[in-house]
Design goal:
The protein is built from 25 helices and 18 strands. The chain is an alpha+beta fold. It has four domains: 161 residues, Glutaredoxin, CATH 3.40.30; 91 residues, no CATH class; 188 residues, Glycosyltransferase (Alpha/alpha barrel), CATH 1.50.10; 82 residues. It starts with 10 loop residues before the first helix and ends in a 6-residue tail after the last helix.
């Protein structure tokens, strides 16, 4: 049968449109139905690339008997957490408070007033490992609802009261100073895994925002420990199974602490954030490995996630069909056996590839298969190509050669080895393309596309890839055309060029503004600064509390049992600190005290949480580094088509000064003309030559026409 989800645009909801469960989308009508029938609501939350969501569906939601019981005794609501992060956040907070853990699929039972009274995640079809079966849970909830209604009502009301009591006043901590940043670095050092990189144990997640903080902290203070943690973590991830050694791009996380076996879904936000992090690592060190991974990840996003409309799809599934069994299996698309390598490559290259990629007869994954890795030193010079870019560092990989990304040995033997490895990768990638591919979630999420725009624009500028800048611009055009209405309000998602019905949340405004600001810096097109200004103004008007804290939803958004407000990062930057960063950058561009003050007030939360929980507020710490450094304002005045202007512009973009903003173009008028950069107003050319100005809080150093001098003013080596 087809249920009420058939007309939805969410790929996740559409996956359930033919379930025998009579699903409702989240709506007032669903709760009215529950009230009229006198039954509880079963809320099921997940997303399309979630492995255990698929398992739960196949075991229970596709089962006729289970569905019949659900339909008779509950009103069943299905929510895509990526479309409605506000609903997900509110009820996940309740689940975590009640059970001490959370995750997806999330299963919550509600009253007709949307008050939660019983919580869980995945439930198996039969009792297992101490867990009740899903049917036992359904029967137990039904029994309590009918037999103990007063108890259910009391639990629901207590949960709502407890959630309301979790409100915290972050604003009293004050503006974070250098001691907050130093304390956060000390806390990260304590949690750092010196043997394997990263933080904490298994499962181990890519610490994207923390890496950005570490790089910025090193740039501001010279702390070698910060740079070492960032470098070692990035290298460990790039050599591990979490990174796709054939096609580029990162899986969601590693199930082990060694980065060997990933959870295979590939998310746009992870890849956008890591692409930018590796590009920034290259900018700081000249690392050939960082350059390669940044470019391969950018190319992965364009090749596999770009949609016909020019935006970027949300995710690739973890599962795909196993040709041998016809069943959907996690990792089937990516794992290899030695025999499969030999079948594709022949005996000699197959054995070579097994050593190169760590493929063993026993396997590193399941059923004797292995996830490809690139262990350091497995084959001398395994990554082959020398770094021919112009990073500002010293190329630290050279110090440990022979190595997989050594940037020193460029003789005939190294070139031949590089060609051999490139050929092996190409042949394996072509063979893998013949396998059934993982499904793709084609919806466009505004926030994640903002992250992708920033990454692609900067990679294009750093590595002389104008095609990547063009791809970033196309995605930005899509967001303006489809996601922004006449009042610059954002739609959270779109699909097939049509905006979804759900309003953008704070992370959409913060991340899209950040993407537009990065694109403005790279292209020299001030219109992107204008669009960013529209978005940060809406943050001030619609998301800001009286005490300067920020809410995840707008003042006029749908009222839930609690208005979500979370400053901590998840897999992506928190909306709170992403918006603070965009506010600070916009203030640096324009001199707006209102925007800077708003950024400073919002950053008070970092003073409260940074030293205590640095792993979970990395984005906020990165923004604090920009605040402590100024951030610096760089104006490059000159004809954009002039080579000397381009050299100064490149030097400005390669500067590692934390959060520096860059405006490049002809000297501007001081009249606020549309498309003009305020930083270029009145910036005269020195001796008729393109000229750069570096300022802090609009107090400027001497202008320069020399790229090397500009680099020195930005605290970096000459490009």
């Amino acid at each position: 049968m087809s249920n009420r989800l058939a007309n939805e645009t969410s790929p996740y909801l559409l996956q359930h449109a033919d379930n025998p469960v009579d699903w409702w989308p989240w709506s007032p009508e669903a709760f009215a139905e529950a009230r009229e029938r006198g039954v509880p609501v079963l809320l099921s939350v997940g997303y399309s690339s979630c492995h255990w969501c698929h398992v739960f569906s196949s075991e229970s939601f596709e089962d006729e008997l289970t569905a019949a019981y659900m339909n008779e005794h509950f009103v069943n609501i299905k929510v895509d957490r990526e479309e409605r992060p506000d609903i997900d956040a509110v009820y996940m907070e309740a689940v975590q408070a009640a059970t001490g853990q959370g995750g997806w699929p999330m299963t919550v039972f509600l009253t007709a007033d949307a008050e939660p009274f019983y919580f869980g995640t995945y439930f198996p079809p039969e009792p297992r490992h101490g867990m009740p079966s899903f049917m036992q849970v359904l029967e137990g909830v039904r029994g309590a609802w009918v037999g103990r209604p007063e108890e259910v009502a009391e639990v629901a009301q207590r949960v709502v009261r407890d959630l309301a009591g979790r409100e915290l006043d972050y604003g009293k901590a004050g503006l974070p100073g250098a001691e907050v940043s130093a304390g956060a670095l000390l806390g990260l050092t304590r949690e750092y895994d010196e043997a394997r990189g990263g933080f904490g144990g298994a499962p181990k997640f890519p610490p994207s925002m923390v890496i950005e903080f570490l790089l910025r902290h090193h740039a501001r203070t010279g702390a070698e420990g910060a740079l070492q943690m960032a470098e070692q973590t990035c290298e460990a991830m790039a050599r591990g199974g979490i990174y796709d050694q054939l096609g580029g791009g990162f899986a969601r996380y590693s199930v082990d602490r060694e980065w060997v076996v990933p959870h295979f879904e590939k998310m746009l936000y992870d890849n956008a954030l890591l692409c930018r992090a590796y590009a920034h690592l290259w900018r700081a060190t000249g690392s050939a490995l960082a350059r390669r991974v940044a470019l391969e990840t950018a190319d992965f996003m364009v090749r596999e996630l770009r949609t016909r409309e020019g935006g970027y799809a949300s995710a690739l599934d973890a599962d795909s069909e196993d040709p041998a069994t016809g069943k959907h299996v996690e990792g089937a698309y990516y794992a290899w056996t030695p025999e499969q390598l030999t079948e594709v490559l022949g005996q000699a290259d197959g054995e070579f590839a097994a050593v190169l990629f760590g493929v063993t007869p026993e396997g590193t994954f399941e059923h004797g298969t292995s996830v490809l890795q690139l262990p350091a030193g497995a084959v001398e010079g395994a990554d082959g190509e020398a770094d021919t870019g112009t990073g500002t560092g010293t190329g630290t990989d050279a110090e440990t050669a022979p190595d997989a990304d050594a940037d020193t040995d460029t003789g005939p033997d190294a070139a031949a080895l590089a060609d051999r490895i490139a050929g092996i990768k190409a042949r394996l990638l072509a063979a893998r393309a013949e396998r059934p591919a993982p499904g793709r979630d084609d919806k466009i999420v505004a926030a994640w596309n903002g992250l992708a725009i920033a990454a692609l624009a900067e990679c294009g500028a750093y590595f002389d890839r104008p095609d990547l800048v063009e791809r970033a611009t196309e995605a930005a055009d899509l967001l303006v055309r489809v996601h922004m209405d006449g009042r610059a309000r954002l739609a959270r998602t779109s699909k097939d060029g049509r905006a979804g019905v759900n309003a953008g949340v704070l992370e959409d405004y913060g991340d899209v503004a950040e993407g537009f600001l990065a694109l403005a810096a790279v292209t020299g097109e001030g219109v992107w600064l204008e669009f960013a200004g529209f978005l940060v103004d809406l943050v001030l008007d619609r998301f800001t509390a009286e005490d300067g804290s920020l809410y995840d939803t707008a003042h006029d958004a749908e009222q839930l049992i609690r208005r979500p407000q979370d400053p901590t990062d998840t897999a992506a930057p928190s909306g709170w600190t992403a918006a603070a960063g965009a506010l600070l950058s916009y203030a640096a561009h324009t001199g707006s005290e209102a925007h800077r003050t708003a950024a400073e007030r919002a950053l008070a939360v970092v003073a409260a949480l940074g030293p205590r929980a640095p792993r979970f507020i990395g984005q906020g710490l990165a923004v604090v580094e920009a605040l402590l450094d100024g951030p610096r304002e760089v104006a490059v005045a000159g004809d954009p088509g002039d080579r000397a202007t381009a050299a100064l512009h490149r030097a400005a973009l390669l500067g590692t000064a934390p959060g520096a903003v860059v405006a490049a173009g002809l000297p501007g008028k001081a009249d606020g003309s549309v498309g003009e950069f305020p930083l270029l107003a009145g910036r005269e050319l020195v001796r008729g030559l393109p000229t750069a100005y570096v300022c802090r809080r609009f107090v400027c150093a001497l202008p320069t026409t020399d790229p090397a001098e500009l680099a020195a003013q930005l605290g970096t080596a000459a490009p």
